[in-house]
Amino acid sequence: MTDFRVPVGLSLPEKLKRLCRRAGMEKEIDFGGKYTAIKMHFGELGNLASLRPQYVHALADLVKEAGGLPFLTDCNTLYPGSRKNALEHLECAALNGYNPITTGCQVLIGDGLRGTDEVEVPVPGGEYIKKAKIGRAIMDADVFISLAHFKGHESTGFGGAIKNIGMGCGSRAGKMEQHSSGKPVVDESLCRDCKRCAKECGSDAITYEKGKAHIDKTRCTGCGRCIGACSFDAIETVEWDANELLDRKMAEYALAVVHGRPAFHVNLIVDVSPNCDCHGENDAPILPNLGMFASFDPVALDQACADACLAASPLMNSQLSDHLAEKGWENHQDHFLDSNPRVDWKTTLEHAEKIGLGTRDYELVVMK
Description:
Blueprint: H1 12-23, H2 25-28, E1 35-39, H3 53-65, E2 69-74, H4 86-95, H5 100-103, E3 106-109, E4 118-122, E5 131-135, H6 136-140, E6 143-149, E7 151-153, E8 157-159, H7 161-166, H8 172-179, E9 184-186, H9 196-200, E10 206-209, E11 212-215, H10 225-229, E12 235-237, H11 243-258, E13 263-269, E14 291-295, H12 298-310, H13 319-325, H14 335-339, H15 346-354
Helix pairs in contact: 1-3, 8-11, 11-15
């Protein structure tokens, strides 16, 4: 890891490149002529906490210098917003600063136009997921690099490498599988009788009555394809799994993405917002900017970042400090839990280690 201090004449993107070289990215991975997916979160419109595109450019430059063919990617969201299909997603990415000029590589949406271009990928030893639904472009890549904004999260405690990979690489159906064991429903007030959802349904579970779609739950498999097919946000899931189950499924999805191919992971603890960058806003940071971390092991990486955050002092005038100042607040001595009291972030790391994604043990090498 390294902090964000730089002398005059050295830029932070250049320091990130030095960090990745020090961690052995170019030595351990043969990039020659290989498609390299750089996966990151583009952020929702209105959110200003996502990573600057210059950091992407630094990684893309490293890949190209090593003979690789990098592209920047993310997958469509399950919820309605500015990233629910590839057209709006690319526009959002561009408005947030991510384009071929600013990032040094092309930008692709990993699961296609409607979030249905996916590959079913086996999860070795998966307890909850046997085959993960991953964006096709991400699985077509020869090499995988995760570039994550390490921040708080209202469901998983924090968002780091594992969330960027597991949740972020899932197609819309894959995201639904992680978030919910339930089945989608139709909001009839928004249905336009376009019948697009029925064309996408592989279970013949959708019929139409009086110009409105209806889902037969006895036939529905809960794949979520209809959610991606609907252009009017008329189909949604209303049954959400407990955070602990979400954490485990997310770890298994991450394993599916990286298993059997070269992978490298970078976390930046900067602008540590209390909630996910999926929000159309970002609250004040809860913790200081702590540094840039890199590793071949996403579990060790997230554990090291979590430990660094837990050892830091909360920032004043933040969601975390406000909670700690509340009369009668039970101080959990855990910044993620005190910021979002219903999370269970340790389960993610415990399960990830259990299934062989990596180890929570690590040696922290500090680069000045």
